[in-house]
UniProtKB/TrEMBL annotation:
InterPro entries: Cyt_B5-like_heme/steroid-bd, Cyt_B5-like_heme/steroid_sf
Family annotation (Gene3D superfamilies): Cytochrome b5-like heme/steroid binding domain (3.10.120.10)
Top-rank taxon: Bacteria
Protein's name according to its UniProt entry: Cytochrome b5 domain-containing protein
Cytochrome b5 heme-binding domain sequence ranges: 6-78
SMART domains membership: Cyt-b5
Length: 79
């Protein structure tokens, strides 16, 4: 099975709202955060699902990229 490739508009559809899964992109990889309670409703500490969050993870996240390895990868992100 090949991985999906998401651009900004496609990723935005996966915002965790109206029954959609919640996906975020970090450093070219798209992760599914739907199963994470902290991302309920597609929001987590002011960040929104359906977006590219590399800068946020690298500069403002207390846990950094360490949590990413626990998340399912659903595809690649290409602007």
């Amino acid at each position: 099975m090949s991985e999906a490739t998401f651009n900004q508009a496609e990723l935005a559809k996966f915002n965790g709202q109206a029954g959609q899964p919640a996906y975020v992109a970090v450093d070219g990889v798209v992760y599914d955060v739907s199963g994470i309670d902290a991302w309920a409703g597609g929001k987590h500490h002011g960040n929104l699902a359906g977006q590219e969050l590399t800068a946020i993870i690298d500069t403002r996240s207390p846990h950094g990229r360490s949590v990413l390895k626990k998340l399912p990868v659903v595809g690649k992100y290409a602007e």
